[in-house]
Amino acid sequence: MRKTAIGADIGGTHITAAAIDLSTGTLLPGSLFRSTYGHQQAAETILAAWAEVLQSCLQVAGEDCQGIGMAIPGPFDYRNGISNMQHKFPHLFHCNVRAELVQRLNSGHLPLRFINDATAFAVGEAWVGAGQSYSKVVVVTLGTGFGSAFIEKGIPVVHADTVPKEGCLWHLPFKEGIADDYFSTRWLVDAYEAKRGIRLEGAHALTALAEKDPEASTIFKKFGVNLGLCLEPPLRRFGAECLIMGGNIAHASALFQPFFEQTLYSLNYSIPVFPSKLWEEAALIGSARLLDPIFWEKVSIDFPDL
């Protein structure tokens, strides 16, 4: 009998979820659901939106569903399902999300498990995405923040001498601050405003300007150079076999990836670099894999760091 699981990706403005075939890592037809909200809305509003989407997926998944995996940003107690976020979802602070959702779902005794959103994205890409042919895969997500994960043989590496603390790069010292200050949408927006005095809405707006405004192109070039300087040491130390880039900024990789690769080359280092193959589906597939018993046995020992 085919075994399935629900994978969900939680963002500040929406939840996306789908039923996943655990033998193939693919979405079941007609199982993708989405709902929007504001992260500052009342806890009941947000939890109701999450429960509605998950219940819709459960109905498609059927009786062979093994449970629900949810990819959610931190800080979050992933083992116990408790939100420790204050910058997002302030009304869910110290909320037992697992208990609240179980009360709202008609799911029997199915397990509900949680994983960091960037880690879930990386697990999905390494399993059935751009990294499936490689053993040691590093994935970065470039968007509102700088996410990352180090994967070896499909398993996130969070406690090893070859990776930074918890397998994260965002906190590493870089130039006048930390990596997250330089590899996010706000850096691109701030850099353009500093040069042109215009505040753009996001990375997509800067991408649209790149063909006609040399300053926009220069900013993406600097972004690529900085990214190369930041990533070369941890990539080399881990012995990475490929690097995968996801997140909204990765859609503009043609504007910065050549400079990223040139910088690595100048440091006598090279590595295959791929865009995400799965994009939005990666975190859904990665979080659903928490319900695979063999995978769960290997990763659960590293909670709460996942």
What does this structure look like?
The structure is a single chain. By secondary structure, the chain is α/β, with parallel strands linked by helices. It folds into two domains: 4-117 and 281-302, Nucleotidyltransferase, domain 5; 130-277, Nucleotidyltransferase, domain 5 (2-Layer Sandwich), CATH 3.30.420. Helix content is 38%, strand content 22%. It has ten helices and 15 strands. The chain has helices spanning 43-61, 97-104, 117-128, 179-182, 185-196, 203-209, 214-238, 253-266, 280-288, 293-299; strands at 4-10, 14-21, 26-27, 33-36, 65-72, 76-77, 82-83, 112-116, 136-142, 146-152, 155-156, 173-174, 177-178, 242-246, 273-275. Helix 1 (43-61) crosses helix 2 (97-104), helix 3 (117-128) crosses helix 9 (280-288) and helix 5 (185-196) packs antiparallel against helix 7 (214-238).
